[in-house]
Design a protein that fits this description.
This protein has 89 residues and is an all-alpha fold. It has one domain. The protein is built from three helices and no strands.
Length: 89
C-alpha cells in the first residue's frame, strides 16, 4: 500500500507551507508583510495606546497607567525586532 509513504509527503508539505509563512524566504508574502507592513501596523497600535495613556493620570489611576506603559514598551520592542527582521522572542 502507498498509505505509509504518502503520510510523510503530507507532513513534508505542511512543514514546507509553515516555512513559507515564517518570513525567512525573501520573496514570500510573509517576508514582505513582516518587513514592510508590520512596523506600520505596530506604530498605529503604539499611537493608540499612547493616546489612551493620556486619559489616565499617573496619580489617579496608577494601575492602568502602568499597564499602558508596559504595553507601549512591549509593542515598541516587537516593532524594533520586526523592522530589523530579528527572530521574535
Amino acid at each position: 500500500m502507498t498509505v505509509p509513504n504518502s503520510i510523510p509527503k503530507i507532513m513534508d508539505h505542511q512543514e514546507h507551507s509553515m516555512h513559507l509563512l515564517t518570513g525567512s524566504i525573501i520573496p514570500s508574502f510573509a517576508y514582505t508583510t513582516i518587513k514592510d507592513r508590520l512596523p506600520i501596523i505596530l506604530t498605529k497600535a503604539i499611537d493608540a495606546v499612547v493616546q489612551e495613556t493620556f486619559m489616565y493620570c499617573e496619580k489617579e489611576h496608577p494601575i492602568q497607567y502602568n499597564e499602558c506603559k508596559s504595553i507601549i514598551s512591549q509593542l515598541t520592542a516587537l516593532k524594533y525586532e520586526a523592522s530589523r527582521l530579528l527572530p521574535c522572542r
